[in-house]
Amino acid sequence: MISYVPKINIQGVLLKDPEKAMSIFNKEFQAAMWSSLFQVEREAKLLSPINQGTYRNSIMSAVSGSGLDLTGRVGTPILYAEPIEYGQKAHFPNLDNIKVSARFKFGALANDTLELQRAYAIAKSIARRGVRAFEVFKKSFEKSKKAIDNYFQSAGLKITQELSR
Fold first, then answer.
1. Crossing angle of the two packed helices 95-106 and 112-129, in degrees rounded to 10
2. Fewer Cβ in 10 A, N or C end of the chain?
3. Are the beta carbons of 79 and 88 closer than 8 angstroms?
């Protein structure tokens, strides 16, 4: 998991109405969090390897918590997400899984023997070299850090202005 605490600068303001203040905090930080997540999600989709688009289309965002205790997540529930993100060491994969993947990527072949031969060739390559890491989420997060800081800095300014009224 990648973790990050954005830079937030809220100037000292006398809190005349704490309930109103919490409402403003929630509104502005939720907005900043969602903007940040959409930024990372957009970058992740651009960096995703594309075959059928299933992986890219499965990338989604979620926010939990409230006020200053917000957690945002960008990810995918797809089972093969970890090998795409982190790669895999050299190993001999399951030929049935490789056959299905190859059929999707390259199309069906005339007979099962040819598909098995193609799957075996791909599996042999994975057994020799492994699978390289794409680091989709790591790279998209790194590319988005400045924008994330800006979203939260802007939220801090809006909060300060609202509370100063």
1. 110
2. N
3. no
